[in-house]
Amino acid sequence: MSHYLEWSRAYSHRLNTADAAPLQARASEMGLRLERELTQGLLPFLSMPYRASLESGLPPVLERMRPCRHMLVLGIGGSALGARAVQKAFAPGQDRPGHTGSSLWIADNVCAEEFEALLAALHPAETAVVCISKSGGTIETLAQYFLVRQWLQDALGEGWREHMTVVTDAVSGYLRQEASSYGLASLEVPDHLGGRYSVLSAVGLLPAAFLGIDWRALLDGAAHAAQPLVEKPRRVGEHPSYALACWARALEIQDYSELILFCYVPRWAAFGPWFAQLWAESLGKDGQGILPVSATGVTDQHSVNQMFLDGRRNKGCIFLTGRRQQPGRAFGQDLPEKWAWLRGKPLGALLEAEALGTRMALCMSGVPLVHLDMEDTGPRSAGAFMLLLEAATLFTGWLMEVNPLDQPAVELGKRLANARLGAPGYEREQTDLDSFMAVPLQEQVF
Ligand code: PA5
Question: For residues 135 and 142, is the Cβ–Cβ distance under 8 A?
Answer without folding.
Answer: no
